[in-house]
Amino acid sequence: MRVGLNLLHCHSSIGGVWNYVRNLLEAIRDYSHANEYYAFVTVYSEQLVPAGRNWVPVKVRISGRQRLLRVMYENLILGWHAERLGLSCMHWFANTVGFMPRVPALVTMHDLNVFDLPPDFSRAGAARWYLRIMMPRSAARAAIVLPVSEATAARLTAVLQVPRCKMVVVPSPIGEAFRPVGQCEVERFRAKYALPDRFWLYVSHYYPHKNHAALFRAYGQLVRRAAGGKWPLVLCGNRRGADSLMCEMAREAGVSEKIVWLPLLPDEEMPSLYSAATSLVFPSLYEGGGIPVMEALACGCPVIASNIPAVQEFAGEAAMMVEPSDCEGLANAMDRMASHEILQESYRQAGLARSVSFRSPAIAKRILDAYQKAAARPCGGRKRNGQSPGDDR
Fold it and tell me: pTM for the whole thing?
């Protein structure tokens, strides 16, 4: 098959979606060399394309950061380009499919936050309007819809009436690099970033639904009454222009002097960060998947996380679950984790065992099977390039 990959929207500041695409392409590269992949890229997303003879970057001279131009290209030109290249199917990674896909489409849907969350917690303005119009149409137009979790699949059925038989759940695969690193590497990492032996960790870009304010309040309670409050809270993520707001939230919670703000780290250092941390605290109010939780579990980092559906789906009993809006409950969970090394080790081992289920090979097989199914289906009822809809390339 010739599989198209629409990576025009990708740039590193989009956070979880960037990580998802990177992880999935690496899993496909490592699992199979049978297909040809034509990746439509900009200068920002070209680095996502794995090296190899069967991976072909198709450079498009637009910027992934110029949303209007990118959307116009996707809706008016990309489908024709895909058909001209004789692609068997096209994978769209960002919740929508263009008006004229021209070849069978698969669309990854990460979450339904534009339907589930208010504008101040989700996308606002034109982007929100566009997604609320295009996501239902894309779900109907696509040959296969690819939710990143069973939780997202359930919302797709409830909100957009997507039939379960049309969906293939494809979580983010966790690569082999995400394993516990050796003690020497942990010490080197801590020295590089001046981190102590014990610290709390939250990996997240700033969005209101990531719930930093509640975490700061819970941590403030911990600082005032428990031994775990002696550990700093380390934040890793893009503050997205909310520096003053986050600093104000930390000041109001009385924890300004206890927070360590890390810069954005290169991908290769993330396993060292998780391995060095005493516990990941993940109080998000809303997730489609929750990649940091999966990465932390795979690196043997004990996890305290929100008891929301997507996180429960992937972490199960391998994480200590809390109600994210209950600051006192979150503080109590952190106190409990800090006070019992045996409990930390128990969650560490449970996380390592749980992470086997989201390693790359099983998920790579799932997406490759989805490509085969999509390629066998007609696009708008047409035959493609002289093929019948069921022919394999």
Answer: 0.89
